[in-house]
TrEMBL record:
A single Gene Ontology CC term: cytoplasm
SUPFAM superfamilies the UniProt entry points to: E set domains
Pfam families noted in UniProt: Arrestin_N
The organism's place on the tree of life at top rank: Eukaryota
Record domain Arrestin-like N-terminal: where: 11-147
Organismal lineage: Eukaryota, Discoba, Euglenozoa, Kinetoplastea, Metakinetoplastina
Protein name stated in the entry: Arrestin-like N-terminal domain-containing protein
InterPro entries referenced in this protein's UniProt entry, alphabetically: Arrestin-like_C (IPR014752), Arrestin-like_N (IPR011021), Arrestin_domain-protein (IPR050357), Ig_E-set (IPR014756)
GO biological process: protein transport
Amino acid sequence: MVFLLTRDRVQITLKLPKFSYIPGETVSGTLVLEVLAKLPITAVRIQLEAKEKVSVKEGRHQYKDEFVHFQKLITCFGHSKVSGRKSGAELDVGTYTYPFSITLPTSVPPCYHCTVNGSRGDLVYALVSTIVIPSSLDAQRKWCIVVRATAPEQQVLDRLQTAARLTNKYLTVVKAAGPTAAASAARTRAPPSSR
């Protein structure tokens, strides 16, 4: 006979259409629980967190700091964390799916990792699933996602305006030169014909 610890009675899988996002995008997926033996639970939760960690080495001293840029917790099933309830339901053997969606703010910074002379810094986005089990250790699983940098909106607008100015300037030059110059410019751009 095999005895499973309570948290070993469940296998947790995450299904995402992709693992790379930009600020403002929605991270949507499905949490899949494979329950191997009856499992008492209080809740099924998923959290998206962006945590920056910095460790600076200066001589024999090392300074560490952490900062959470973004954190969103969703209770997919059961009692919310703020309710404080310790008991809930019992899941029978089987497969359970819990869809979720979390929208990244447009202001979140991109992921990074940097190491210089023994000092280190990184910003990691992680999805953490937690199966809250009363009177036992919770079952947890963690997956990292990538949040890429995007060009600031003003930078994109500036480039579009510059392109429009250059196009208008070119059209003005061609019009000023007259129809013969425009036809000549078109012929010089045309691919040579095979004779």
